[in-house]
Write a structure and sequence with these properties.
The complex is a heterodimer of chains A (418) and B (154). With 418 residues, chain A is α/β, with parallel strands linked by helices. Chain A is built from 14 helices and 14 strands. The N terminus of chain A is likely disordered. Helix content of chain B is 29%, strand content 32%. Chain B has four helices and seven strands, in the order αββββαββαβα. The N and C termini of chain B lie far apart (49 Å). Classes of the chains: A alpha/beta (418), B alpha+beta (154).
C-alpha cells in the first residue's frame, strides 16, 4: 500500500512545479493546500519547542485526524502572511510534510528540503480555566488564531439509519473523544455563554464566533430542534455583547426560510453556511444520503438561495469537501471533468448570491471513505482559482468566512487582496 | 540583504513628529501612497507598520507584495529637514499572538476605540538619504553642469 501511494504522488506535479505553473496563485497558499492534502508529522525537535503555556494543544474537535489519535500535539500552524493551516497529523508512511526545528526556527520540510517557516498557534487565555461547574473551558469552546469555535453537538442524526456522509467520521470521533477526553456530546447553552464571556476578556484575540454541529432531524418540522438549540445558544452567547448583532457564523443544515428568519431575527447571528459537500446531484445522493433523504440536492440549493434574502448577499455560502467528487467508484473519472462540472454548479449558485468555498478532503480512518485518496495538488489549486474568479465575477464577498474569521478555505484566502 | 538602520535614522523614524508615507503597488502596478504614522523600527531592526483597517488598499497591496515578492517603499521626513527613503520586502503579517495583542492594546490606549487588522513587518533592504541638502551637494559635485547659468554669472 505504501508503494502504491508513493507512486501515485510521484505522477502528480510537485509543489514547485505547481507554483511555477500557476504564478498568479501565492506560493504560501499552495503550501497550505498541500499541507492539508498530505498532512503533517512533527519531529521530536519540533515537539520540544511546543510550550503548553504559550501554544495551543490539539483538543476537542468535530472530526478526527489521519493518525486516529488524540495525543497532545500542536493544534495547527500559522504561516508568515497570517495564513492559518489546519493541520492533520498523519502517519509517516502517508508521506506527510514534516514540521522540524532548525536554525532557531520551526520549519516545514518536504523530506529534507526546508519549504517555509511556520509557527504554532498561540494558546488563548481561557484554555486551562474551568467553568463554574468545573468543566475545562476548552472542552466547551475551542479557538483558532482569531476565531472562537463552538461545536454544540457532536452527534449527527443522519447516522441514525446509517445515512451519514461517506467522508465524515463525526459520530465515531465523538465516541472516541468522549471516552478518552471526556468532551461532552451536547453543550449547555448557559455554559457556552460563560466561556465566551471569559474568552472576550483577551483583548485583540478573537474576531468572530462560529457554531457548527451535526444535523438534528427532530422537531415538528424537520430540524426544528436543531434550530431551537442554536437559538438558545446564540441568545446565551449574545448576552456578552452590547450590540444585538455580533460577527458570527452558523454552519448547519439547509433550513427552511421560516427557520432561517427565526435565526436571523431572534439572535445576533450575521453569517450562514449550509454545506452541500459535493456539487453534483447524483454524487450528493450517493455521498450524502442523509442530506438527500431529508432535504434533497435541488432543495438544498434553493434553501441556500433563499438564505441570501434573509442574511444578505456576502453573508451566505456553502462548503464542498473538495476531492470527494472523484471518489471511487461513482465519482468523476478525470480531474478536468470534476473541475468543469463543479465550477459550473458553483457559478449557478454564485449568480444567485451564494458563494462556494472548499475544504480539502481528508480521507479519515473512521469514515466510510477511509481507504480512498484525495485529489492532486494541481486540482486543488485550479479549484481555488476557479472559485476565487467566480467571487470576483459576481462581486461576492466572503468576509465572514475569510482567512481571519475561518482560515480553512484556500480559495477564500485569495479574497484577501480583492 | 537587510540594510541596517542606524541609531540616528531610527530616532527620526520613531519620532512622532516625523511624516511617514508607505508606498505599495496595486494589482495594476499603480503606486498607492498613504501616510502611516504608525511606522517605526522594531528592536530587531525591522520596519513595522500597524494596519488599522482590514479593508485598506495598503493592506491588500502589502499582502500581495508579500505573496509575490514585490518591494514596498517608505518615505520619511523629519522635523530637522532630514528625509530618507527605504525600500524593503514585506516579511511577515501578524494577525494573532502576543506581539499582535501588545500592539492592539497599545494602539487602543493611544487612539481610543479603533481596531487593529495586522502588524506588518518589513525587512529594510535599501536606504537612501533624500534630504535636500544631501542630494544638492551630491549633484553639485557629481553633475556640475546641472545648474542655471545665472548662478555662475559675475
Amino acid at each position: 500500500m505504501t508503494v502504491k501511494i508513493a507512486s501515485i504522488i510521484e505522477k502528480d506535479l510537485t509543489l514547485d512545479e505547481v507554483v511555477e505553473k500557476y504564478p498568479d496563485i501565492p506560493r504560501l497558499i499552495v503550501i497550505k493546500i498541500d499541507v492539508q492534502r498530505r498532512g503533517v508529522h512533527y519531529t521530536e525537535k519540533a515537539l520540544e519547542k511546543l510550550d503548553p503555556s504559550r501554544h495551543q494543544i490539539r483538543g476537542a474537535a468535530l472530526f478526527g485526524s489521519r493518525d486516529n489519535k488524540l495525543t497532545p500535539l500542536p493544534e495547527s500552524l500559522i504561516l508568515r502572511d497570517g495564513t492559518t493551516v489546519l493541520t492533520d497529523p498523519s502517519p509517516l508512511e502517508h508521506n506527510p510534510y514534516v514540521v522540524d526545528y532548525e536554525d532557531d526556527r520551526l520549519v516545514l520540510k518536504d523530506k529534507e528540503k526546508v519549504i517555509e517557516e511556520v509557527e504554532f498557534w498561540p494558546k488563548p487565555d481561557f484554555y486551562g480555566k474551568k467553568t463554574a461547574s468545573g468543566k475545562p473551558m476548552e472542552h466547551i469552546v475551542t479557538a483558532r488564531p482569531q476565531r472562537l469555535q463552538v461545536m454544540p453537538s457532536s452527534y449527527c442524526h443522519f447516522w441514525d439509519n446509517d445515512h451519514g456522509c461517506k467522508y465524515c467520521d463525526i459520530v465515531n470521533h465523538l465516541k472516541h473523544q468522549k471516552a478518552e477526553l471526556g468532551v461532552p456530546a451536547k453543550l449547555n447553552p448557559r455554559e457556552v455563554g460563560e466561556v465566551i464571556g471569559e474568552a472576550l476578556k483577551q483583548q485583540g484575540r478573537f474576531s468572530s464566533i462560529c457554531l457548527t454541529a451535526g444535523s438534528d432531524t427532530r422537531g415538528r418540522e424537520p430540524f426544528d430542534e436543531e434550530v431551537e438549540y442554536y437559538i438558545e445558544l446564540l441568545k446565551s452567547i449574545g448576552l456578552n455583547f452590547k450590540t444585538k448583532k455580533f460577527p458570527s457564523q452558523l454552519i448547519a443544515t439547509a433550513f427552511t426560510e421560516k427557520q432561517l428568519k427565526r435565526l436571523y431575527d431572534e439572535t445576533g447571528l450575521t453569517g450562514y453556511t449550509a454545506d452541500i459537500e459535493v456539487l453534483n446531484e447524483d454524487l450528493f445522493n450517493w455521498i450524502c444520503p442523509g442530506k438527500a433523504e431529508w432535504i434533497g440536492y435541488k432543495e438544498w440549493k434553493n434553501r441556500l438561495v433563499r438564505a441570501v434574502d434573509v442574511f444578505g448577499k456576502g453573508n451566505v455560502n456553502t462548503g464542498i469537501v473538495a476531492g470527494v467528487e472523484l471518489a471511487k467508484p461513482y465519482g468523476y473519472i478525470s480531474e478536468d471533468e470534476a473541475l468543469k462540472y463543479t465550477l459550473e454548479e458553483a457559478e449557478d449558485l454564485a449568480s444567485k448570491g451564494v458563494s462556494t468555498i472548499y475544504m480539502v478532503w481528508i480521507p479519515r480512518p473512521q469514515s466510510y471513505f477511509h481507504d480512498q485518496k484525495n485529489a492532486s495538488l494541481e486540482y486543488y489549486v485550479r479549484l481555488a482559482k476557479g472559485l476565487h474568479e467566480l467571487r470576483r465575477k459576481y462581486s461576492l464577498g466572503i468576509d465572514f468566512d475569510d482567512y481571519r474569521r475561518c482560515g480553512n478555505h484556500p480559495d477564500g484566502d485569495l479574497t484577501r487582496i480583492l | 540583504m537587510s540594510s541596517e538602520i542606524n541609531k540616528e535614522i531610527e530616532e527620526i523614524i520613531n519620532h512622532e513628529d516625523t511624516s511617514k508615507v508607505l508606498v505599495t503597488l496595486n494589482e495594476n502596478g499603480l503606486p498607492h501612497a498613504v501616510v502611516k504614522q504608525s511606522i517605526r523600527v522594531s528592536d530587531e531592526g525591522k520596519l513595522v507598520y500597524l494596519e488599522l483597517l482590514e479593508s485598506s488598499k495598503s493592506y491588500k497591496n502589502f499582502t500581495r507584495s508579500l505573496w509575490f515578492n514585490q518591494k514596498v517603499v517608505i518615505s520619511i521626513s523629519g522635523k530637522n529637514g532630514k528625509s530618507y527613503q527605504i525600500k524593503g520586502m514585506p516579511e511577515k503579517i501578524l494577525i494573532s499572538g502576543p506581539i499582535f495583542e501588545k500592539y492592539y492594546i497599545n494602539v487602543r490606549e493611544q487612539l481610543g476605540d479603533v481596531d487593529l487588522a495586522a502588524v506588518c513587518i518589513i525587512d529594510p533592504e535599501e536606504l537612501t538619504d533624500e534630504s535636500y541638502a544631501t542630494r544638492f551637494s551630491e549633484q553639485e559635485s557629481k553633475q556640475p553642469i546641472f545648474k542655471h547659468l545665472d548662478r555662475l554669472a559675475r
